[in-house]
Amino acid sequence: MTTPTAVALEDAKVAFRLGDGRVYTAVEKAHLAVAQGEFVAIVGPTGCGKSTLLNVAAGLLKPAAGSVKIFDRPLAGLNRDAGYLFQADALFPWKTALDNVAIGLEIKGTPRSEVLPQAQKWLTSVGLGAFAGRYPHMLSGGQRKRVALAQVLIRDPKILLMDEPFGPLDAQTRQVMGNLLLDLWNADRKAVLFVTHDLEEAIALADRVVIMSAGPSSRIIGDWRVQLARPRDIFEVRMDKEFHALHREIWSVLKDEVMKGYAQSTHAAEAV
Amino acid sequence: MSRVTLLALQVLVAVVCIALWQLLSTVPVFGKILLPPFFFSNPVDVFSQIVKWFASGVIWKHLAITLWESILAFVIGSVAGVLVGFWFARQPLVAAVFDPYVKMANALPRVVLAPIFALWLGLGIWSKVALGVTLVFFIVFFNVYQGVKEVSRTVLDNGRMLGMSEGQLMRHVYWPSALSWMFSSLHTSVGFAVVGAVVGEYLGSAAGLGYLIQQAEGIFDVAGVFAGMFVLSAFVILIDSGVTLVERRLLVWRPTAADGRG
């Protein structure tokens, strides 16, 4: 039996029209498939369009060419099978942590009396059971991410799209959040597309690591399978010999792109 | 500084000012009274005027009228401001077309409208309400417009990805955002509602605090003018503290400057 493909980008090209009428191609002919239950990380230098690719999979952006298929059906409009975890704060500041989690089910029309116990359960499972009544500004950055994770997961999406979700957090909190994510993911193994600029994070979390070249017109230039055993502990796995070997191998490819990316961004800054 | 010391100092300022006023308006300095009673009256007279108003009960009617006008002006102005603000923010074309006229109407000093409103709506409360509405409307309108336009892109995208329909986005995202902007200007808009009412009364009416002051002024009763001013200030402070209470309840979710990052 073959596992179905959750997300398939086929020769997807993303372009934006700039203010002066020129067309900026962010991503060129991206070909990427995420199988059901697979955790795929996209890594690339800053500005390579990895978040753009994620937005295409979410349906927030339309590809200029190529197609997006979700469970073998072409995507029209927003991706209703996906939950999206944003890099920036996306919680509703006027709702308490509990209400922020509950809203995902409430808008489906589930009665509030049924939703609230579930929301409380999810808050507890991300370790914030005691913080239900807090508003987002009363929580730390890491706690806000936990609420955001619960907010997405309560809807039980088949696909998880994550855009550098732990980017703004400090190094220790990121690892703790990574482990929390793996624990929750292990329970039902959703398809995950995880964008990050941190190669170590990508290898520690994912089944596959996809590398993108520096933008503009960036392409997917590498695809590695991570064979590390599951369940993993992010703290432990970084000591593993296999981890180091893989890291060295991918980094040798990624390094050039990172340098190119830097050169381009400094060049662009000089031009301005 | 403790609260008690602060309060004591605050009271001290009032005591010193009133004492000076009383002294300079009754006791000659170098054979000359520095604050002639005709122009400045004196605290005792002003106070007894206030006591007389409250003792006889005439003041209540005027207070009630002014309060009622302020409330009506605030409610009507706010509702109109919210509706139009929402409409303009969601329909950029409408906003662009009306932009110069909105600016023009807002640039007009509202006092000049008072005679027109008096002409159209008579000398009763409605001409005062109309004046207050023209003041409140623009404050609320600009804030709601801004509030709807400045909804965070990420929060909006998050709402969409969570499956919200346009109506649900309205209710869970645009509306709270606009309201928070409106409430942040609550003190100003309530203040302007009172200003509209009092100025309207002053320019032509048969009741209200503005009318009291205007009447006293008409017969050179300076004590009456000052008494009216003090009652008016106390009235505004009372309303303002009411607004603060409402604000605390409604904006609990907002970070205050003092509590920093958790």
Helix-strand blueprint:
The complex is a heterodimer of chains A (272) and B (262).
Chain A: E1 5-17, E2 23-35, E3 39-43, H1 50-58, E4 65-70, E5 73-74, E6 82-85, H2 97-106, H3 112-125, H4 141-153, E7 159-163, H5 171-188, E8 191-196, H6 199-205, E9 208-212, E10 220-225, H7 234-237, H8 241-271
Chain B: H1 3-26, H2 37-40, H3 43-56, H4 58-90, H5 92-107, H6 113-121, H7 125-149, H8 153-161, H9 166-184, H10 186-203, H11 209-218, H12 222-250
Structure description:
The complex is a heterodimer of chains A (272) and B (262). Chain A is an alpha/beta fold and 272 residues long. Chain A is built from eight helices and ten strands. Chain A has helices at 50-58, 97-106, 112-125, 141-153, 171-188, 199-205, 234-237, 241-271; strands at residues 5-17, 23-35, 39-43, 65-70, 73-74, 82-85, 159-163, 191-196, 208-212, 220-225. Chain A has a six-stranded mixed β-sheet, with helices on both faces. Chain B has two domains: 1-40, no CATH class; 42-250, MetI-like (MetI-like fold). Chain B has twelve helices and no strands. Chain B has helices at residues 3-26, 37-40, 43-56, 58-90, 92-107, 113-121, 125-149, 153-161, 166-184, 186-203, 209-218, 222-250. In chain B, helix 4 packs antiparallel against helix 5 (92-107) and helix 7 (125-149) packs across helix 9 (166-184). Classes of the chains: A alpha/beta (272), B mainly alpha (262). At the A-B interface, strand 6 of A face helix 8 and helix 9 of B.
